[in-house]
From TrEMBL:
Sequence similarity: Belongs to the peptidase S45 family.
CDD domains, per database record: Ntn_PGA_like
Family annotation (Pfam families): Penicil_amidase
Biological process, per Gene Ontology: antibiotic biosynthetic process
InterPro entries in UniProt: Ntn_hydrolases_N, Pen/GL7ACA/AHL_acylase, Penicillin_amidase_A-knob, Penicillin_amidase_dom1, Penicillin_amidase_N_B-knob, S45
Active site annotation, chain numbering: 249
Cofactor binding summary note: Binds 1 Ca(2+) ion per dimer.
Name assigned to this protein: Penicillin amidase
Keywords attached to this entry: Calcium, Hydrolase, Metal-binding, Zymogen
The protein's required cofactors: Ca(2+)
Length: 797
């Protein structure tokens, strides 16, 4: 027995030593000295208490080389996932399960466009943004060569290849694809249009309605002149993506006339799919003539959101419609031709080989028309809708990519006009660029190339591809884009809602949200003129939606309460609901399940299960709900599969009956215990976390959070019959800045700064985020030194 005990002891000791060895070879280095070839002088790096690097270099090139090294140290596997999505090479690393994703993105055209952009980059002369980009790439590659690689590569039995400029172009391509709204919505709207007709569409909000909230424009005279120049559905396919999708965002900028400090206040929280690590990597860069605190996308050297001592930039999704679909007529005597005008043109055919881990490559044939690639083979909803080829026309593929130049210029801007000039360079995705500065200026620009469409085209219904007049013909000039510069209101707000008409009178179409978040922010800012960033925390964290209690009150008028005597104690909760989503609330648990069954009973008979589930994932469902439920003559009420005609009251009553019975079985007979916290799951999934037991190692599961659709603190989920809601997206950071003390601003990340599982900063902000707390963004060197350990020194070789 003694020998067995000794043997077991040695076994456990060897196991412990093995674990320590694995941890040691995969852990980031946050202090000491590292030799980094290519540096011309030493770079000092101080990591604050949450792992944010404050990088002090003697010149631009050294500083960006250090950023590349440190970004890779904390986020290399995230960079790997991002570049592989954009280059269509996920299956090469992760296996056959990801083949459909590669086929989709290659057919859509992102990898080929990235390669074309790289060819242009290689032929360009050196510009101000090319040298720091090259330095960043060199820093990433030095870490790949000599650094402690993350453990994911060991688990996959792989090593990373070198990082390239093409990878950056592919990553910006994926960012431009973002949330695939058109690909989710347009086939669905076309299906409804063809199968059901306009009376069914009129019961929804396919277009904006009068009750929705529009962003006011304010065009200044000073900026009139432009500057120089095989899945069941796409949704289930995109659920396999190992990287988060951009979904929305809030931002507002308040002038000094409405702040207690007399200086500009700046707020931004970008809404992005939950993931581990979360999307943003924070870094403070300082070298002679430049001092900037930024939020970086994996593999991109310049910040998309950030601030210097004199200006701040933020973003939200514009949600403009930049994607059209054209149904083509095939030549009956030649399937390789399509009709365009009075003649036939030949499809352009290309072949690609997709590498797959452990298997032979798979051949992909891509067919293109003058409009763009044919998507039938990679978007099941399109294939089910029509056997005719459907081509994708996308703004992103129709203009040169100048994203890196735009970001560099915004980071290094010295005034508001320079930011406006940089915003003009962005063609896709549509971004709302938010701006504030130390001089008191506030601004918002909708940055995108907006196509001039034919009056023959409904932007959300497949167009006739044989008619040349349906093709977009030109771009609106940037000076006509939505914008607001120093408005009299004293604030600018963007919350993914519809901007008002352009300066030319056009109301540009899109996939905008109804503006309930915009309304709540506007009401708050109008209520006083002495705001502080401490007080703005309560605005940023608000979980109230005014529209939901109005829906509830209406729904209650359409049922007979005598039919629900068993559940009579639930009605006081439903009647008194303010629209808040705090964890102890009971009403949200009932409300969302009731909404689900109400829509299911109304729509499945017309749409089928898959199309109905697709509808639930769209902005259209959120925007349509009040209009949908308060329409007594809504044609959706009738079940087309029965002989009798169902009424609104019948649907409301039956759906509530199902809801209450299911909740009784789920949470018990005592309705007081049906608290919202029991229905919410919040987890940040890692790309390898879908496999057990890796989910326990890499995924970050949080305490319950007050999930809510279209409150300012938007923590989004999808309606479902289970009554358990997984938060799919939320604020990917929360930033608050007062230019009276710009060197100490607030932020928080959903998980942590590092994507390395063995880093102490992997999930150290999870509790702060879940509980609505913040931490500092330091820019003052004294603060940084007081809140950092020993520095990491990067030395020349």
């Amino acid at each position: 027995m003694k020998k067995i005990g000794i043997a077991l002891g040695l076994l456990f000791l060897l196991l412990a030593l093995g674990i320590l060895l694995i941890i040691s070879v995969h852990t980031p280095q946050y202090e000491g000295k590292i030799k980094v070839p290519g540096l011309t002088s030493a770079v000092e790096v101080y990591f604050d208490e949450h792992g944010v690097p404050h990088i002090y270099g003697q010149n631009e090139s050294d500083t960006y080389r250090a950023l590349g090294y440190l970004h890779a140290q904390d986020r290399l596997f995230q960079m790997e996932m991002m570049r592989r999505v954009g280059t269509g090479t996920l299956a090469e690393l992760l296996g056959e399960d990801l083949l459909s994703i590669d086929q989709f993105f290659r057919t859509l055209g992102i990898p080929a466009y990235a390669e074309a952009t790289t060819d242009q980059w290689d032929s360009q002369s050196t510009n101000s943004w090319t040298n720091p980009t090259k330095a960043y790439i060199d820093g990433v590659n030095e870490f790949i060569k000599e650094g402690n690689l993350p453990v994911e590569y060991r688990l996959l039995g792989e090593k990373p290849r070198e990082f390239t400029i093409n990878d950056i172009h592919a990553i910006t391509g994926y960012m431009s694809f973002t949330f695939a709204v058109a690909l989710k919505v347009d086939p669905l709207v076309t299906l409804m249009h063809r199968k059901l007709g306009n009376k069914y569409l009129d019961a929804l909000s396919v277009d904006m309605l009068p009750e929705h909230h529009f962003i006011p424009n304010h065009y200044p005279d000073s900026l009139i002149n432009p500057s120089p120049k095989s899945e069941s559905s796409l949704i289930s396919l995109l659920e396999k993506l190992p990287v988060p999708q951009l979904e929305g965002s809030n931002s507002w900028v308040v002038s000094g006339n409405k702040s207690k400090s007399g200086k500009v206040l700046f707020a931004n929280d970008t809404h992005i799919g939950f993931s581990s690590p979360s999307v943003w990597y924070e870094a403070h860069l300082s070298y002679p003539g430049f001092d900037f605190y930024g939020n970086h996308l994996a593999g991109v050297p310049f910040a998309l959101v950030g601030h210097s001592l004199h200006h701040s930039i933020g973003l939200t999704m514009f949600e403009n419609d930049d994607h059209d679909f054209f149904e083509l007529e095939v030549n009956p005597s030649d399937p390789n031709q399509y009709k365009f005008g009075e003649s036939y043109r030949s499809f352009q055919m290309t072949e690609q080989l997709i590498p797959i881990k452990g298997q032979e490559p798979v051949k992909l044939e891509i067919k293109k028309s003058i409009h763009g690639p044919i998507l039938n083979d990679v978007v099941p909803e399109i294939a089910e809708l029509t056997s005719n080829p459907v081509a994708s026309w996308w703004v992103y593929l129709n203009e040169p990519n100048r994203a890196l130049e735009a970001l560099y210029r915004m980071n290094h801007a010295q005034n508001m006009q320079e930011v406006a000039n940089a915003a003009e360079l962005i063609h896709a995705p549509g971004l709302n660029i938010m701006y504030g500065d130390s001089l008191g200026n506030i601004a918002w620009w909708a940055a995108a190339k907006l196509p001039v469409r034919s009056e023959k085209v409904h932007p959300k219904v497949f167009a006739d591809g044989s008619d040349p007049e349906t093709m977009p013909t030109a771009w609106y000039p940037f000076t006509e884009n939505p914008m607001s510069i120093n408005p009299e209101s004293g604030y600018v707000i963007s919350a993914n809602n519809q901007p008002d008409t352009l300066s030319n009178g056009v109301l540009f179409p899109g996939y905008y949200y109804p503006g309930e978040r915009w309304k709540r922010i506007s009401q708050a800012l109008e209520s006083k003129n002495d705001w502080t960033i401490e007080e703005l925390k309560s605005v940023q964290l608000e979980t109230v939606n005014d529209c939901h209690p109005e829906n509830m009150k209406y729904m209650l008028t359409k049922i007979n309460r005598d039919d629900f005597l068993e559940f009579s104690s639930i009605f006081p909760y439903l009647e008194d609901w303010s629209g808040d989503h705090q964890l102890e609330e009971v009403t949200p648990t009932v409300y969302y399940k009731w909404l689900y069954h109400l829509h299911r009973l109304s729509m499945v008979d017309e749409l089928g299960e898959e199309a109905f589930e697709a509808y639930l994932t769209t902005f259209m469902m959120i925007r349509s709900t009040p209009h949908f439920i308060q329409n007594e003559q809504n044609p959706w009420w009738d079940n087309i599969e029965t002989t009798e005609k169902e009424t609104q009251e019948e649907i409301f009553s039956k759906s509530l009956e199902i809801t209450l019975q299911e909740l009784k079985e789920q949470f018990g007979e005592n309705v007081n215990t049906w608290r919202w916290e029991k229905a919410i799951i919040a987890e940040h999934p890692h790309p390898l976390g879908s496999k057990k037991p890796l989910n326990k190692i890499f995924n970050v599961r949080t305490q319950a959070i007050p999930a809510s659709e279209e409150s300012i603190n938007k923590l989004a989920f999808t309606l479902n019959g289970d009554g358990i809601y997984r938060v799919r997206s939320g604020p990917a950071m929360r930033i608050l800045i007062d230019f009276a003390d710009v060197e100490r601003s607030y932020s928080v990340l959903p998980t942590g700064q590092s994507g390395n599982r063995f880093s102490p900063y992997y999930k150290d902000q999870e509790e702060l985020f879940a509980k609505g707390k913040y931490r500092w963004q330091y820019m003052d060197r004294k603060d940084i030194l007081e809140n950092s350990e020993n520095p990491l020194i990067l030395n020349p070789e």
